[in-house]
Amino acid sequence: MVKNVVTICLLLCMQHLSFGQGTITGNITSSEDGLALIGVTVEVLPSGRGTLTDVDGNYDINKQMDDSIRFSYIGYKTITMPIGGKTKIDIVLQPNAEILDEIVVIGYGTIKKSDLTGSVSSIKAEDIVKVPAPNAIQALQGKVAGMQILNTSGDPGADPVVRLRGVTTLNNNNPIAVIDGVISDVSQVAQLNPNDIASVEVLKDASATAIYGSRGAAGVIIVTTKRGKSGKNVVSVSVEQSIENVERKIDVMNGREFATFLNAIDPGSYNNLDALPNTDWQNEIYNSNTPITNANFSVSGGSNTSNFYFGLGYFGQQGILPKSALSRLTGKMNLGFDVTKNIKMGFDLSLALSDKENAPGVVGTALRAWPIDRPFLENGNFADVMGGNPVAAIEYTNSDRGLIAGLGNLYASVNFLKDFTFKTSLQFTHDEGRGRSFVPVYFVGPLQQNERNDLTYSNDNATTLIFENTLSYAKEFGKNSLNVLAGYTAQDSRNEFISGLTENLIREDDLFWYLNSGEDIYERVSNNFSRNTLLSYLGRVNYSFDSKYLLTVSMRRDGSSKFGINNRWGNFPSVAAGWNLDRESFFPKISFLNSLKLRASWGIIGNERIPGEAQFSLISNDYNTVFGENETLQPGASFNGGGNPNLKWEETRQTNIGINAGFLNDKLTVELDYYIKNTDDILVPLEPIGYTGVGAFRSIFYNAANVQNSGFEWNINYRETKGNWSYGVGVLGTTIKNRVTDIGQGIGADSLLVGGDLGNGQQVARTAVGQPIGFLYGYEAIGVFQNQAQFESTPSLFGQTVGDLIYKDVNGDGRITAADRTFIGSSIPNFVYGFNLSAGYKNFTLSADFQGQTGNKIFNGKQTIRFTTLNYEEKFNQFWTGEGSTNEHPRPTVGGVNYLPNSYFVEDGSFIRLRSLTLNYQIPSKSKWKINSANIYVRATNLFTLTKFTGYSPEIGAGSAIDGVIDRGVYPITRIFSLGLNANF
Amino acid sequence: MRKNIFLLSLVSIMLVSCNEDFLDQTPRSALTVGTFPVSESDAILATNAVYNGLRAWHINTGGFPILDIMADDASKGSNPGDGAQLNDYETFKHNASEGSMERWYKTLYEVIRRSNLVVNEVPKINNMDENLKQRLIGEARFLRAYYYSLLVRGFGDVPKVLVIDPPLDLTRAPYTEILNEIIYPDLEFAVSVLPEKSAYAANDLGRATKGAARGLLARIKLFYGDFPAVEKLCEDIINSGEYTLMSDYKDVFSANFEHNSESVFEVSAIPDSYVNGGNQYANTQTVRGTPNRGWGFGRPTYSFISEMQNNNDLRLEPTVLFVNEVIDGVLIVGDSPTLDTTYVNGVIVEVECYNQKVWYPGPDPNTSFGHNRRIIRYADILMMYAEALNENGKSSQALPYLNLIRNRAGLSDVTTTDKNQLRDIIILERKYEFGLEGLRFWDLVRTGKAEAVLGPLGFIKGKNELLPIPQSEVDISQGRIKQNFGY
User: Does A788 touch chain B (CB under 8 A)?
Assistant: First the structure.
C-alpha cells in the first residue's frame, strides 16, 4: 500500500513536472571560453514565455503546459530541447560560426557570402589578430590574393604602399579605405589598432567597387570595427615590446678600397693606405636594438537597446635612425542605440594623436660620404667630410610633425513599411597637423654650414564632410530574393595650409622655437586653401533565385569639381552574375568537392585623384623685382606653372571571371580569378615640352595614356586538425601583365612619356606603347673596351676611351648616340606571391609568412647621381685595370660617360622574404586567473630576404609609376623581434 | 512613415537643386588667365614679373657661368669635385643630357610666357593710362626680345611661341624668323615707346630704357653681322648723352656704383635670398672657402691673367680676385681642397682666384646675392661702335672710341687703320674689357675665331657654335624638335 502510494505520488509528481506548472533553473556558458553568457534569451514553448540570463549566466523560468525549452543568443547556435522531467538544465552554447562567416560587408551594405557575385576577400578579426602584426595594414599581408603590401621604408610610421591587381594608373595607385562607412585613405587604416577591427573586406573587381564610382579604381578596402555585444562586458588588453635593427647594410667601399680607387683615377693621391682612417658611416648613423612599444586596451558591452566599444592604444617606435621617432595614441569609440523598435542611431569615432620626428635625410649621405674622412676632429667638433658629414647633419636636424586625426560617423536608420530602410549619415574626417623645424647656427665645412639659425612652423588642416543617404529594400518571395539600394552622397573636402619662416632667433634652445623669437625682417608667411566637392548618385540591385542564380547590377554617377564644366560628370555602371553549382540537383553529392561557384563581372570605375586646381594655370604673386635708386622690392605676378582645362575622368573597365571551390568539407578552399583591367585617359603629371613655358621641374596633369593589366590570381588554403595537431598551408599569387596600349593624347608626345628624372638632367624611365609602365631606359652595357684596337673598331660614345663600358649600337648605324638608348628592364614584377605555413600542437602555434616577387628591375640611382667625387658601392672595386681584367666593370672614373643611365646600374629586384615568423601560446582558459582567453607570442619580422638586389630593400615605392623604380637611398627596413601578450577578461 | 518619405524627398530635392554651384570650386588665393591682368596695377605686376626672370638662378645659363667656362677667359673653377659635370663645357664634351641646358632653355621659355601674358593681355585693359600701357608693353617686349636673343644665339632655330598656351606639335622655327618676326620688331617697338634712362622716375631705376633697347638691338645686329645697323644704333646712344664711361674701371662693377653712368642695362638685386630680391649669379662665382661667400665657379684662367700682367693692364686687378688679396678689409684665403697653384711638369697651369667683378661686400653668402649683374655697359656700346665703323670702312673714325677704352686701362693708343688688323685688335681688346662677362665666347663664334682659339680645348667647328637642344625636348617631342648638328 505504502509502496503503491509512493508510486502514485511519484507518478503524480512526474506528471506534474512534465505537464503541469514548475520552475526550471540553469546556467548558460559559452563553448569558446567556458564563461557565463549574459542576456541569453530563454523561452519555454509553446507558450513563448521568456526570460534572460543574469550576469552569472543563470536563469529561472516558470513553465505551465510547456514541453520544450529554447536558448538563443546572438552569434550562437540556437538550441531547442524537450524539457522532459528536468528542473535544472545547464547548457553550453556553441558559436554559430556558419552564420558569422556568411555575412560579407560590401559597399553601402552587407550580403550573404553565398550570394556574392563580385571578387571580394573577407578577413575576420580572428585572422587579423591570430598572427599579431604591428598595424592593421601589415596584418592583411599575405591574406588577399592580388594584394601587394610593400615594405618600402623602416621609418617609423611610414605610409604603407598597397597595390591591388597591379599598377592601374600612373598616379595614385593606393586603394581607398572605407572605415565604418567613411571613405578615407589606406594610411588611415595603418593608424587603426588591429585589435579594434572586426573584419576587413577587400573589393577587387568592378562589380564590387563600381558602387564607389570615381574612387574605386585601385580597389576598396572596407574596414569594420568592433561593436559591443549586449551581455557581459569584455575587457581586452594587449601589450607588445619589440626591438629592431637594420635588416642589412649596403656594401660600400671601405677607406682602403676607396683610396685605392681614387689612386687608380689619379695615381699617387694616397701614398700610405694603412694610415688612412676607415669610417663606416652606416655604423655611425644607425642605432641598434631600438625599442618599439605597442599597448592596447578596450572595453565593450551593451544592453538590449544599446552597445558600446571603447578602445585606447599606444604605439611608440624610436627608429634606427636618431631623431626619427614616432609616438601615437589612438582612441576608438563606437556607440549604438535602438531608439525605437524601428529607429537605430549610432556614433563612431576614431582619434589618433601622433608625434613624428622627421627623419634626417642622411641615408644617401652616409652611403656616399668619404670613408677616409673621420666624423670628428680631435677636439670633438664635427669634421668636414667630403660628401657631407651625416653625423653632423643628424645633430643639426630638429624637425617634427604632430598630427591629430579624427574620423567620425553619426548615423540613423529607419525601418519602415517592413521591407524598407532609410539610412542617413553625416561623416567627417579631420586631420590637424603641425610641423616645426629648427636649424641652429653651425659650421662643419664650407658646404655644410648655416650662418643664421632658422625656424619653419606650419599648420595644415584637412576636413572632409560627407552627407550620405541611402534607401534600401529587401524582400524575399518564394525562392526569389531581391535587394535594392538607392543613394545620394555629397562630399566636401577642404584643405588649408599656413606656414611661417623666420631667421636669427634670439636664443637657440627649444623654448624659443617659435616665430616670435626670430628677427622681423626675415619673417615670411604663406597660406593657401583648396576645396573640392563631389556629388554622387548610386543604385544597386541584387537578385538571387533559390541562392543558385545570382545577379548584381549597379550604377553610380559622380560629379567632381576637379574637372571643367564639360567633363564634370562620369557614369560608372557594373553588372555581375554568379552560379552556385553545388545547389543544383545534378551536382554530385561527393565529399571531395563540396562547394562550387562560378562568377563573372564587368564594370567601369573612375579615378579623379588629382589636385583640385590641376585644371587651372594659376597666377602667383611671388615674382617680385627690384627697382629704384634705393633698391626696393616691387611685387610682381605671373604664371606659376601651368594647368590643363581639358582634364576629364580617368576610367577603368574591368572584366573578371572567377571560381570558388571547397573540397573535403572545406578543408581545402580554392579561389581563382582571371581579370583584365583597361584603364583609359590616365591622369598623370608630366613635365611638358619645354617651350610651353611651364618652367624647369614643373609638371602639368594630362589624360595621357591607356594601360592594360591582366592576370590570374589564386588563393588556396588547406586547414586540418588531427587530435592535438593542427596545420595549415596557404598559397596565394598573382601574375601581372602590364602593357601600355596607347599614349599621348595631346601632350606633344605621340608614343612615349619620359619619367624618372635623376635630378642631374637625365631621365631613366620611359612609358611607351607595348611596354610596361615606367620601364627603365638607357644604354645597354655589353662589355668593356679592352684595348685600343677594339675601341677603334667598335662604335663608341663621344668622350669614351679604353676601359669604358661598351654601349650597344642598338640601331646599328655604326655610332653610339642618344638614339641607341633602349629598354633595360621592367619596373613592374610579373609575379607576386606569398605563402603561409602554420602548425599547431595543443596550445602552441608556429606560423610563417613568406612574400616574394619576380621579374622587376631597379635602377641604382644613388650610384649614378654624382655631382662630385663620392664613395662607391662594393662592385666598383672590381674595376677594369687593363686588358683582360674584366669585361663587366669599367675603369675607375669620378663621373662621366660610364655613369650615364645604362644597364650596368640595373639590378634584379626579385626577392623572397620571410615576412614574419610567430610562435604563439594559447594560455589554457580554465586557468586560475580570471581570464577568458589569453595568448603570449614571440615574433620575428623580416628575418631574412633572399635577393640579388644590393640596396636596403627591393620593395621601393615609386612616387609616380612613370618614374620607374629608382633606388635613391631610402630609410632601411628593419628586422624586428617582438614579445607580446593578449588577454581578454 | 509618410512623414519620413516626405522628409527624404525634400532633402533630396534640396540637394539636387544646388548641384552645379556646389561643384564649381574656383581656386582660392590665386588668379587665372582671364582674371589677370585686368587693371593698371595688374599690368604693372605682370610686367614686374617679367623682370623677375632676370634674377632667376636658371636664367644664368642654367645656374653656372657656362659661357665663360667655354671661352678662354675662365675655367670651371670651384673645387675639383664640385660641379664635375661642368668640366665637359671646358673641353667641349658637353652633351644634350647635361641638366644646365634644360634648366636654362625651359626657364627662358617660362619668362617668355610671362612676357606674352603682358603683350597679349595688357592691350585689352581699358581704364588705364595709355602712356603707361605702351611703356609696360614696351618693357615686356624688350625683355621678350632679350630672352629670345639668348635662345637663338645659344641654340639656333627654336620653337616660336607668341601665345600663352602654344600647340604641342611645334617644330623649330628658323632663327631668322625669330629675329625678323619677334626680336627686331619687339626692340624697334621698345625703342619707340621706352623713355630714356634720365626720363624715368628715381624709383623706376632699373627698368628697360630706350638706350637699353638700342644697345640690345646693336648687340644682336652685331652678332649677325649687320654693321650699318650697329653703327646707327650706337651713334644714337652716344648722341643721346645719357651715358659716360666711368673714369676708374674698378668702379664699374662696384657695389658703391650700381646703375652708374656707364650702365645701360643692369639687373638690380638686394643682398638677400632670391625671394627677398637677391640674385644668385654672383654667389655661384664668388669666393669659396674662407671667407665663404659662394661656390667659386668660373675661375679666371692663368693665360688670361698672365696676358694682362704682361700688358700691364690696369683691368687685371679689378677683374681677378687673388688668394691672399685683401678686399673691403677681408683677407681672401680661399678653398682648402683647391690647390693655390697647380703645376703640370713644373709649369703653372692654374692659380686659385675668383671673379672680382661679382664681388659684393658683406658678412655671409647671402649678401653676395646683392650684386647687380651689368648686362649692357656703355663701354660695349663704344666698342661695338668702333667695330662697326671699322667694318663699314671708317677705320680711322673707329680709333678714338677704341682708345677711350684702352686709355682707361692704362694702355697706349692704337693707330693702325688697317681694317683686318684693327678688327683683330678690337676683338682682343674686348677679351680684356669684357672678361668673365659672358661675351667672349660669342665674340669668337661670330668672328670665326673660335676654332683657332678654342680648338686646342676641344672646340669643333660646325658643331660647337651652338649648344645642344636639351635631350628632354627632343625626347618629349618624339624627335619633332631636332637636335643640333653633332650632338
Answer: no
